[in-house]
Amino acid sequence: MIWVAMFFAISTLSAQQFSYNVKRIWGDSTMHCAFSSLIYHQGRYYCSFREGVSHIFDKDGKAEGKVRILSSTDGQSWESVAFVGKEGIDLRDPKLSVMPDGRILVNVGGSIYQNRELVACEPHVMFSSDGKTFTAPEPAILDKKMTSKRDWVWRITWHDGVGYGVSYNKAPEDDNNGNELWLVKTTDGKHYEAITKLEMDGYPNESTVRFLPDGRMAIIVRREAGDGRGMWGVSEAPYTKWEWKKMGLKLGGPDFIVLDDNRILLCTRNLAVPGAAKTCVYLGNNNGFFEEALVLPSGGDNSYPGIITSGDEVWISYYSGHATKNPCIYLAKIPMANFRKQ
To answer: Is 82's pLDDT higher than 50?
Structure first.
């Protein structure tokens, strides 16, 4: 418990130290736009998100969110290159990555509802060779040892020709953890093989995998039960033995990158004030300790960022309902100088 108290004793960096700009890049309040992802590939930026009538259901109780993908050459002017749905399935959290063969992979959660009750989750994938046309969403094929009919492969990171991610699923009825968490890998973007089960309580779910400069894998995990604190884990290859540390904050749709000075930049939903969630940027290290650096303009239903570096800036896509009836998609451009050690 001592190290948790020490975390809260760390001072927050003053937002006045930061110079940055934020622009709404999609949405006009008529539709609910949420759960973003961001990549740069072959001279263009791509931003993906879910677009629907509401966070889940329309007025008739249907949940059929669609995948919207935007493209831009400069991050200022954006055009829609894909708007894809699938009847009877709520497509959520489309996450972008670039495969070793140059294709864009889109990992999408597929939620199925009956009478407003979630009855199944089926991971889907989409592909694009040119960034202009995308294949129709098709079910991913998961290792049979971990499938539960409520599975979600949330985000993929490629390393040395292999894509790694975390699949979370509904645990057996007698499992008090609520979810099972599996580290998975793929080489073709469609088939996912289980590497190891990640033992964790507290209803773990949304997880992001990245690689540290020393070659170790790092994972950040959202938890929603118990104390709800996020978990930070590191492991050496073959990634079957993990060291976990409980973080000092709750997470929502977390993403992180490693900066050029080896520090970690994390962006996530901040739930410190009940009923007043914000999208916040944190700086930390590979020991799992983070301090708040910046609160992005946000409010209402918000967060789920995507993070990339572009030149000497950090770009963060996210969604927020602070200025409109329904949330829209925003892009923050933050000079890297703000994050460099003084």
So the answer is: yes
Closest CA to 311 of 326, 333, 292: 333
pLDDT tens per residue, range 137-160: 999 999 999 888 899 999 999 999
Give residue-wise pLDDT tens across range 252-307. 999 999 998 889 999 999 988 888 999 999 999 888 899 999 999 999 999 999 99
Buried b (16+ CB within 10 A) or exposed e, 47-81: bbbbbbbebbbeeeebbbbbbbbbbbeebeebeeb
DSSP per-residue string spanning 146-210:
T--SBEEEEEEEEETTEEEEEEEEEPPTT-TTSEEEEEEEESSSSEEEEEEE----S-EEEEEEE
Which pair of structure tokens corresponds to residue 35? 């759960």
CA-wise closest residue to 205 among 290, 92, 330: 92
Edge-to-edge, what's the strand order for the sheet holding 44-52?
32-41, 44-52, 66-72, 79-84
236 CB-side CA count, 13 A: 1
104 touches 127 (CB < 8 A): yes
pLDDT given at position 97: 98
* Cα(193)–Cα(21) distance, integer angstroms: 41
Residue 89 is given by DSSP the state B
If we measure between CA atoms, which residue out of 121, 191, 135, 200 comes closest to residue 163? 191
What is the H or E stretch that residue 3 is in?
helix 2-9
Rounded Cα distance between 146 and 148, Å, is 7
Reported as a single tens digit per residue, the pLDDT across 42-64 is 999 999 999 999 999 999 999 99
Domain boundaries, the chain: 22-339
Contacts of 215 (CB under 8 A, 6+ apart): 236, 237
CATH architecture of 22-339: 6 Propeller (2.120)
Q: Extract the tokens encoding 262.
A: 């080896």
Compute the distance between CA of residue 324 and CA of residue 95 in angstroms, rounded to an integer.
24
